[in-house]
């Protein structure tokens, strides 16, 4: 039994309770006023032209009967047409049983509410059915209304039609918003698929490039080593220095390609460097931002340049672009290291943890480090990247 009772109210939201409760409470109060309204008071009101007919019933039964027209609003989400039909039957029954009493104070707001809900919730055909039922409900409310009589129906029906039109406009706008969101999600999915295909293609290309580089350089080193058997000490030393230099160049090239493969940075050609940080800040921030470079600026190995750029990019992406809070980036060139400092307000909607993880992986890949501290809504990051001497 408890399951059946809970199922009766399944899907009923707090706003539905508030709406049905307000209409029901107002209706009960109005019916009690009808019960307690005296004939002398009615005669005085008719004389003052504030009523058109005396109250013909003072039965307390009109209170629960009128509640039959408002309580069903609680379940409008299940079937607005049925709720409107029940309200119409309840109002006609109230007219037949109690005759001339005041109903318009609650009956007309009930009509307006049901007309709007039907227009918002239903398709065109059923919405027009609900509008027709609400027109009949309006007539039932005013048919034997002691306060207004039937004449105000010529004003009430256009108001019902206006409320219905507003509901249809809201429904159409909601449908358009839903469709736009669905299309946006679909476009994002297609963009992600295209990007994944591009990245996969670029990674295959880079893998072939790495294999070709290794084959070429190993062949060159083998040939150079074979040619050094009969050389004197000075010539052999020069050969070994040449082999060492070529090996370092090969290693730098391999690190660059592996870094691209690991980080997915295959869309930029040529790869961004520290010199591009100014453009990065200008592109990612509309507010005041500042880039400071100190030390001995110089060209660094491509892997260091790219990693420095990506670390700043990851961190700037999760900083808030605020007009009253500056984003500061400083780069210091030391003899054996590159120090990067990023300072700015944190964007509360961004995934700060994921960005810091990616930036830290960049630093660790080169044997460096990254420290991040967040205090009072501002992030302060310090990255140290070793630079081969």
Summarize the structure.
64% of the residues lie in helices and 10% in strands. The chain is of the alpha+beta class and 389 residues long.
Distance between the termini: 82 Å
Structural Rg: 39 Å
Number of strands: 5
Sequence stretches where pLDDT stays below 50 over 5 or more residues: 264-269
- Number of helices, where a helix is a run of at least 4 consecutive DSSP H or I residues: 12
Number of individual domains: 3
Coarse shape: rod-shaped
Major sheet strand order: 1-2-3-5-4
Helix content range: 55-70%
Main beta-sheet annotation: 5 strands, mixed
- Structural category is alpha+beta
* N-to-C order of helices and strands: HHHHHHHHHHEHEEHEE
What does this structure look like?
Strands 1-2-3-5-4 form a 5-stranded mixed beta sheet, with helices on one face. The longest helix is centred in the middle third of the chain and has 74 residues, at 153-226. It is an alpha+beta fold and 389 residues long. It has 12 helices and 5 strands. It has helices at residues 2-8, 14-36, 39-47, 62-70, 80-98, 104-121, 124-143, 153-226, 233-263, 277-284, 302-317, 352-365; strands at 289-295, 327-333, 337-345, 369-375, 378-386. The protein has 3 domains: 2-151, no CATH class; 197-263; 274-386, Heat Shock Protein 90 (2-Layer Sandwich). The model is unreliable at 264-269 (pLDDT under 50).
